[in-house]
Specification:
0% strand; 294 residues; single chain
Protein backbone atom coordinates (compact mmCIF):
# COMPACT_ATOMS: atom_id res chain seq x y z
CA UNK A 1 0.00 0.00 0.00
CA UNK A 2 1.56 3.27 -1.10
CA UNK A 3 1.92 6.44 0.91
CA UNK A 4 -0.85 9.00 0.56
CA UNK A 5 1.26 11.93 -0.64
CA UNK A 6 -1.11 13.58 -3.12
CA UNK A 7 -3.35 16.47 -2.01
CA UNK A 8 -6.75 15.27 -0.80
CA UNK A 9 -9.69 15.16 -3.17
CA UNK A 10 -12.70 17.31 -2.30
CA UNK A 11 -14.67 14.37 -0.90
CA UNK A 12 -11.90 13.59 1.59
CA UNK A 13 -12.18 17.07 3.04
CA UNK A 14 -15.97 17.03 3.34
CA UNK A 15 -16.35 15.02 6.56
CA UNK A 16 -13.59 16.75 8.59
CA UNK A 17 -14.97 20.15 7.55
CA UNK A 18 -18.57 19.16 8.32
CA UNK A 19 -17.46 17.72 11.66
CA UNK A 20 -15.61 20.91 12.57
CA UNK A 21 -18.65 23.06 11.76
CA UNK A 22 -20.98 20.71 13.68
CA UNK A 23 -18.75 20.72 16.77
CA UNK A 24 -18.55 24.53 16.73
CA UNK A 25 -22.34 24.77 16.41
CA UNK A 26 -22.94 22.27 19.21
CA UNK A 27 -20.45 24.06 21.48
CA UNK A 28 -21.93 27.48 20.73
CA UNK A 29 -25.58 26.39 20.87
CA UNK A 30 -25.94 22.86 22.30
CA UNK A 31 -29.73 22.98 22.13
CA UNK A 32 -29.90 24.32 18.57
CA UNK A 33 -31.00 20.96 17.14
CA UNK A 34 -34.14 19.63 18.89
CA UNK A 35 -35.44 16.26 17.74
CA UNK A 36 -37.92 17.64 15.21
CA UNK A 37 -35.16 19.68 13.56
CA UNK A 38 -32.81 16.68 13.59
CA UNK A 39 -35.45 14.61 11.80
CA UNK A 40 -35.96 17.34 9.20
CA UNK A 41 -32.21 17.71 8.71
CA UNK A 42 -31.80 13.95 8.37
CA UNK A 43 -34.61 13.59 5.83
CA UNK A 44 -33.42 16.52 3.68
CA UNK A 45 -29.76 15.49 3.71
CA UNK A 46 -30.54 11.86 2.88
CA UNK A 47 -32.81 12.86 -0.01
CA UNK A 48 -30.45 15.50 -1.45
CA UNK A 49 -27.07 13.87 -0.79
CA UNK A 50 -27.78 10.27 0.20
CA UNK A 51 -30.20 8.91 -2.39
CA UNK A 52 -28.10 9.91 -5.43
CA UNK A 53 -25.33 7.53 -4.40
CA UNK A 54 -27.62 4.58 -5.12
CA UNK A 55 -29.37 6.23 -8.05
CA UNK A 56 -26.52 5.27 -10.36
CA UNK A 57 -27.05 1.56 -9.75
CA UNK A 58 -28.73 1.25 -13.19
CA UNK A 59 -25.54 2.58 -14.78
CA UNK A 60 -23.49 0.04 -12.85
CA UNK A 61 -25.95 -2.62 -13.97
CA UNK A 62 -25.31 -1.61 -17.58
CA UNK A 63 -21.58 -1.99 -17.08
CA UNK A 64 -22.14 -5.42 -15.53
CA UNK A 65 -24.29 -6.52 -18.49
CA UNK A 66 -27.49 -6.62 -16.47
CA UNK A 67 -29.26 -3.75 -18.25
CA UNK A 68 -27.92 -3.57 -21.78
CA UNK A 69 -31.25 -3.26 -23.65
CA UNK A 70 -34.83 -2.23 -22.89
CA UNK A 71 -35.88 -5.73 -21.78
CA UNK A 72 -32.94 -6.05 -19.43
CA UNK A 73 -33.50 -2.54 -18.06
CA UNK A 74 -37.10 -3.40 -17.17
CA UNK A 75 -36.07 -6.73 -15.68
CA UNK A 76 -33.32 -5.13 -13.60
CA UNK A 77 -35.61 -2.43 -12.21
CA UNK A 78 -38.36 -4.93 -11.39
CA UNK A 79 -35.88 -7.22 -9.63
CA UNK A 80 -34.43 -4.27 -7.70
CA UNK A 81 -37.92 -3.19 -6.60
CA UNK A 82 -38.86 -6.75 -5.66
CA UNK A 83 -35.83 -7.14 -3.39
CA UNK A 84 -36.50 -3.73 -1.82
CA UNK A 85 -40.16 -4.60 -1.21
CA UNK A 86 -39.15 -7.94 0.31
CA UNK A 87 -36.84 -6.16 2.75
CA UNK A 88 -39.71 -3.91 3.90
CA UNK A 89 -42.07 -6.87 4.32
CA UNK A 90 -39.51 -8.86 6.31
CA UNK A 91 -38.86 -5.81 8.52
CA UNK A 92 -42.57 -5.52 9.29
CA UNK A 93 -42.71 -9.25 10.05
CA UNK A 94 -39.41 -9.58 11.98
CA UNK A 95 -38.50 -6.03 13.06
CA UNK A 96 -35.76 -6.78 15.62
CA UNK A 97 -34.00 -9.40 13.52
CA UNK A 98 -34.24 -7.11 10.49
CA UNK A 99 -32.67 -4.24 12.43
CA UNK A 100 -29.82 -6.46 13.62
CA UNK A 101 -29.17 -7.79 10.11
CA UNK A 102 -29.34 -4.27 8.69
CA UNK A 103 -26.71 -3.09 11.16
CA UNK A 104 -24.47 -6.04 10.26
CA UNK A 105 -24.68 -5.57 6.49
CA UNK A 106 -24.30 -1.82 6.88
CA UNK A 107 -21.06 -2.34 8.79
CA UNK A 108 -19.73 -4.48 5.94
CA UNK A 109 -20.95 -2.03 3.31
CA UNK A 110 -19.59 1.06 5.06
CA UNK A 111 -16.22 -0.59 5.56
CA UNK A 112 -15.69 -0.21 1.82
CA UNK A 113 -15.24 3.53 2.30
CA UNK A 114 -11.60 2.80 3.21
CA UNK A 115 -10.83 0.07 0.69
CA UNK A 116 -7.89 2.09 -0.67
CA UNK A 117 -6.55 2.86 2.82
CA UNK A 118 -6.69 -0.30 4.94
CA UNK A 119 -6.60 -4.08 4.71
CA UNK A 120 -9.89 -6.02 4.99
CA UNK A 121 -9.85 -6.70 8.74
CA UNK A 122 -9.20 -3.13 9.96
CA UNK A 123 -11.71 -1.92 7.37
CA UNK A 124 -14.35 -4.21 8.87
CA UNK A 125 -13.46 -2.93 12.35
CA UNK A 126 -13.97 0.60 11.05
CA UNK A 127 -17.37 -0.32 9.64
CA UNK A 128 -18.44 -1.86 12.95
CA UNK A 129 -17.18 1.11 14.96
CA UNK A 130 -19.15 3.49 12.77
CA UNK A 131 -22.31 1.93 14.19
CA UNK A 132 -21.15 0.94 17.66
CA UNK A 133 -19.75 4.35 18.66
CA UNK A 134 -23.06 6.23 18.77
CA UNK A 135 -24.72 3.22 20.41
CA UNK A 136 -22.07 3.15 23.15
CA UNK A 137 -21.72 6.92 23.63
CA UNK A 138 -25.43 7.82 23.36
CA UNK A 139 -27.10 4.56 24.39
CA UNK A 140 -30.37 5.97 25.68
CA UNK A 141 -30.88 8.18 22.62
CA UNK A 142 -30.16 5.30 20.25
CA UNK A 143 -32.47 3.01 22.24
CA UNK A 144 -35.31 5.49 21.66
CA UNK A 145 -34.53 5.60 17.93
CA UNK A 146 -34.35 1.80 17.70
CA UNK A 147 -37.67 1.54 19.53
CA UNK A 148 -39.25 3.71 16.84
CA UNK A 149 -37.84 1.35 14.22
CA UNK A 150 -38.41 -2.06 15.82
CA UNK A 151 -40.42 -1.67 19.01
CA UNK A 152 -39.24 -2.59 22.50
CA UNK A 153 -36.98 -5.27 21.07
CA UNK A 154 -35.12 -2.58 19.17
CA UNK A 155 -34.46 -0.68 22.39
CA UNK A 156 -33.18 -3.88 24.00
CA UNK A 157 -30.88 -4.44 21.01
CA UNK A 158 -29.34 -1.01 21.53
CA UNK A 159 -28.65 -1.81 25.18
CA UNK A 160 -27.11 -5.16 24.21
CA UNK A 161 -24.77 -3.56 21.66
CA UNK A 162 -23.61 -0.75 23.94
CA UNK A 163 -19.89 -1.24 24.56
CA UNK A 164 -18.14 0.83 27.26
CA UNK A 165 -16.99 4.21 26.00
CA UNK A 166 -13.35 3.56 26.88
CA UNK A 167 -13.36 0.40 24.74
CA UNK A 168 -14.74 2.27 21.74
CA UNK A 169 -12.24 5.11 22.16
CA UNK A 170 -9.33 2.68 22.54
CA UNK A 171 -10.25 0.71 19.41
CA UNK A 172 -10.85 3.81 17.31
CA UNK A 173 -7.59 5.40 18.45
CA UNK A 174 -5.81 2.14 17.56
CA UNK A 175 -7.45 2.17 14.15
CA UNK A 176 -6.43 5.80 13.67
CA UNK A 177 -2.88 4.82 14.60
CA UNK A 178 -2.91 2.02 12.02
CA UNK A 179 -3.99 4.48 9.33
CA UNK A 180 -1.32 7.01 10.31
CA UNK A 181 1.37 4.33 10.44
CA UNK A 182 0.48 3.42 6.87
CA UNK A 183 0.72 7.14 6.05
CA UNK A 184 -2.97 7.30 5.19
CA UNK A 185 -3.25 10.71 6.78
CA UNK A 186 -6.72 11.60 5.55
CA UNK A 187 -8.17 8.27 6.66
CA UNK A 188 -6.71 8.94 10.11
CA UNK A 189 -8.32 12.38 10.14
CA UNK A 190 -11.67 10.86 9.12
CA UNK A 191 -11.48 8.31 11.94
CA UNK A 192 -10.64 11.04 14.46
CA UNK A 193 -13.51 13.17 13.11
CA UNK A 194 -15.98 10.29 13.44
CA UNK A 195 -14.84 9.61 16.99
CA UNK A 196 -15.32 13.24 18.01
CA UNK A 197 -18.64 13.52 16.20
CA UNK A 198 -20.03 10.29 17.69
CA UNK A 199 -19.02 11.37 21.19
CA UNK A 200 -20.43 14.91 21.03
CA UNK A 201 -23.25 15.00 18.48
CA UNK A 202 -26.71 13.51 18.59
CA UNK A 203 -26.89 10.11 16.83
CA UNK A 204 -29.05 11.41 13.97
CA UNK A 205 -26.67 14.30 13.33
CA UNK A 206 -23.73 11.92 13.42
CA UNK A 207 -25.33 9.53 10.94
CA UNK A 208 -26.52 12.26 8.58
CA UNK A 209 -23.06 13.83 8.35
CA UNK A 210 -21.26 10.50 7.91
CA UNK A 211 -23.71 9.12 5.36
CA UNK A 212 -23.91 12.27 3.26
CA UNK A 213 -20.49 13.91 3.67
CA UNK A 214 -18.41 10.72 3.44
CA UNK A 215 -20.16 7.56 2.27
CA UNK A 216 -22.50 8.91 -0.42
CA UNK A 217 -20.13 11.61 -1.61
CA UNK A 218 -17.22 9.17 -1.95
CA UNK A 219 -19.30 6.64 -3.85
CA UNK A 220 -20.70 9.26 -6.23
CA UNK A 221 -17.31 10.86 -6.85
CA UNK A 222 -15.80 7.47 -7.61
CA UNK A 223 -18.50 6.63 -10.16
CA UNK A 224 -18.23 9.97 -11.92
CA UNK A 225 -14.47 9.55 -12.16
CA UNK A 226 -14.97 6.15 -13.79
CA UNK A 227 -17.43 7.51 -16.36
CA UNK A 228 -16.32 8.89 -19.69
CA UNK A 229 -16.73 12.67 -20.12
CA UNK A 230 -19.43 12.01 -22.73
CA UNK A 231 -21.46 10.11 -20.10
CA UNK A 232 -21.34 12.78 -17.38
CA UNK A 233 -24.56 14.57 -18.36
CA UNK A 234 -26.40 11.25 -18.64
CA UNK A 235 -25.24 10.26 -15.16
CA UNK A 236 -26.55 13.51 -13.71
CA UNK A 237 -29.94 12.93 -15.37
CA UNK A 238 -30.02 9.36 -14.08
CA UNK A 239 -29.15 10.55 -10.57
CA UNK A 240 -32.05 13.01 -10.55
CA UNK A 241 -34.61 10.67 -12.14
CA UNK A 242 -33.94 7.69 -9.88
CA UNK A 243 -33.69 9.85 -6.74
CA UNK A 244 -37.08 11.40 -7.50
CA UNK A 245 -38.52 7.94 -8.23
CA UNK A 246 -37.25 6.70 -4.86
CA UNK A 247 -38.90 9.62 -3.07
CA UNK A 248 -42.15 8.80 -4.90
CA UNK A 249 -41.97 5.17 -3.77
CA UNK A 250 -41.29 6.34 -0.21
CA UNK A 251 -44.55 8.23 -0.54
CA UNK A 252 -46.33 4.87 -0.80
CA UNK A 253 -44.91 3.88 2.58
CA UNK A 254 -45.88 7.31 3.92
CA UNK A 255 -49.51 6.56 3.04
CA UNK A 256 -49.37 3.04 4.49
CA UNK A 257 -47.79 4.25 7.74
CA UNK A 258 -49.66 7.56 7.97
CA UNK A 259 -51.31 6.63 11.27
CA UNK A 260 -47.96 6.45 13.06
CA UNK A 261 -46.59 9.34 15.14
CA UNK A 262 -44.57 11.77 13.01
CA UNK A 263 -41.22 10.87 14.62
CA UNK A 264 -41.75 7.15 14.06
CA UNK A 265 -42.96 7.71 10.52
CA UNK A 266 -39.94 9.77 9.45
CA UNK A 267 -37.43 7.45 11.11
CA UNK A 268 -38.99 4.40 9.48
CA UNK A 269 -39.15 6.05 6.09
CA UNK A 270 -35.46 6.98 6.30
CA UNK A 271 -33.93 3.87 7.86
CA UNK A 272 -36.22 1.10 6.63
CA UNK A 273 -36.15 2.84 3.26
CA UNK A 274 -32.34 2.82 3.35
CA UNK A 275 -32.37 -0.86 4.30
CA UNK A 276 -34.68 -1.59 1.38
CA UNK A 277 -32.29 -0.04 -1.15
CA UNK A 278 -29.09 -1.14 0.60
CA UNK A 279 -29.73 -4.87 0.08
CA UNK A 280 -30.17 -4.76 -3.72
CA UNK A 281 -27.39 -2.16 -3.90
CA UNK A 282 -24.99 -4.50 -2.09
CA UNK A 283 -26.00 -7.44 -4.29
CA UNK A 284 -25.25 -5.35 -7.36
CA UNK A 285 -21.95 -4.13 -5.95
CA UNK A 286 -20.92 -7.74 -5.26
CA UNK A 287 -21.63 -8.59 -8.92
CA UNK A 288 -19.72 -5.54 -10.13
CA UNK A 289 -16.76 -6.36 -7.88
CA UNK A 290 -16.73 -9.99 -9.01
CA UNK A 291 -16.45 -8.77 -12.60
CA UNK A 292 -13.52 -6.51 -11.72
CA UNK A 293 -15.45 -3.31 -12.53
CA UNK A 294 -14.87 -1.72 -9.09
Amino acid sequence: MTSELAPPTAERLALPMATGLALILLWWAPDALPMNLQLLLLAVLVVVFGLPHGALDPWLAERAGLAGDARKVVAFNLAYLAVAALVVLVWVWLPVLSLAVFLAISAVHFSGDWKSDLDPFPRLVAGLLLLLMPIGFQTNQVAVLFEHLSGEGGAALAQALALPAWVLVAIMMTLTGVALRRQRWWAGLEFASLLALAYVAQPLVYFALYFCALHSLRHLAGLFRQARPADQARLWRMTIVYSVATVFLAGVLWVLWSQMPADTLILRLVFIGLAAVTVPHMLLMARVKAMGLQ
